[in-house]
Automatic annotation (TrEMBL):
TPR repeats: from-to residues: 162-195
Organism: Alicyclobacillus ferrooxydans
Keyword field contains Plastid: no
Pfam families attached to this UniProt entry: HD_5, TPR_12, TPR_8
Gene3D superfamilies: Hypothetical protein af1432, Tetratricopeptide repeat domain
Record's protein name: Uncharacterized protein
Amino acid sequence: MRTLLHDAQLQHALKLSANGHLYAALEKFQDKLRSGEYGASGSLSLLYDEIGKIQIQQHDINAAEHSFTLAVAAADTLDNQAKCQIHLAMALHAQSNFDRAYRLLQEIENRAGAQLPNLRRGILFNNLATVQWATQFYRDAVTSLRKSLQYFEEADVVHYHSTLYNNLGICYIELRDYENAELCIQKALEASDAKEELMFSYTALSRMYLHQGDYEQSIEYARRSVPLFDEAYQTADPLLTAHLCRLYAELSFHIGDQRLAKQLMEKAELQVGLLGHWREFAEIRARLEEWTDGRVSPDRHLAGDTTLMKRFLLITEAWNTQEFIATRFSEFIDTRVKYATELAHQLQLSEEMKVNLVTAARLADYGLTAIGSDVTDRPDRSHTTWLQYIHHPELTVEMLGELQFCPDVNTLILRHHERCDGSGFPNQATDVPVSPNGEEAERDSLKAAERILQLSDAYAESVVLKRVSHTETMQHLRANAGAFDEDVLNALECLF
């Protein structure tokens, strides 16, 4: 009898999920679940586990907890049960339920650790360390991270090394063991050249030197991290962004720009509050009160330029405020960025144009934050509200003016709601204006980027904000093919 593991539909869904095509994958997993054609209990466990992993990525944590609980109950082997229980602990961690997450992870190790494959134990101890770090058991976290490294090495898996060494460095900083902290962070730098990992390492080094009172070195590494954030902010972890805000706030304070310092620290306070990290929230609140009451002053004023830190604050502000436009708007933006990036790669845009496209995809709706919710909730309820709504791309460009993005970013933002057949807004445009230097190659590249953003926006709006299924969304886009570039639409279909 054929098992679910050999099912072509399931294999397709697993491939979609691995490639980050969450809505298409979730639809297929749920269809398989509803069909009842999943054979043994282990196959049922696999379905629930995969659904839970997607729900985690969609920030639907309560649903993910439920799915992982069902996956654990249906697991048919010790390793599968451990895998699903680790995922359940991840969901509990995301809910700041650290005690239960810790107990689940420790229970796996106590009951079955010696019987698990090295790779599974490496993952187990890495997750255990994140809980220990969150609850300030830094020495225990170091021990767990060292064990995680050991098991990954025994499994001949090295691609986690950069993250593990960075995490070790952070723990050593908390323990004021700066020698080991620097050694670990340098190993992390040697292990990866990914922008987000580099940003994490530079931020950790900046924080370490700040703790030691070496402000020049701290500022130097902060300066290295800010440009990386410009390139990687579309994928940056929200907690890392909060830590960057906190770090740059301290540096701005010591440079002497106390107004910027308070703005950055307040942004960090908001971020960690939204993430439910209440210990860190209390620490930030206490620091702000110290500054407000004048109980602390800079150790010494430094000659420093805070321009990059101001830019960081402006980008973070634009990024974060969009999240409050509507329910699931953050997920909508993430999805738009995901498909803009994928399609740019498929259609071989230049690296420079990819960066411009992703920047526009991340920030294109910032103008909506200046429009009342009565307009954004129901823009078509009157002619007046519709006129306000359709001009939000122009408002976005105006509000982002201080960041001085290149002309192509502004053009992409202005035209992300236009359509090839003239049915879009605000200008019912059908073609792309010639690039400032008039070169045909640049015009074609900008045109491709514009068409990519238009389709990515339409897909994301449908599956996320309107909650239309992936299949129905693709059918609707194909039925309205004249509104979208044929090559871009074909490329999107090929992804699935």
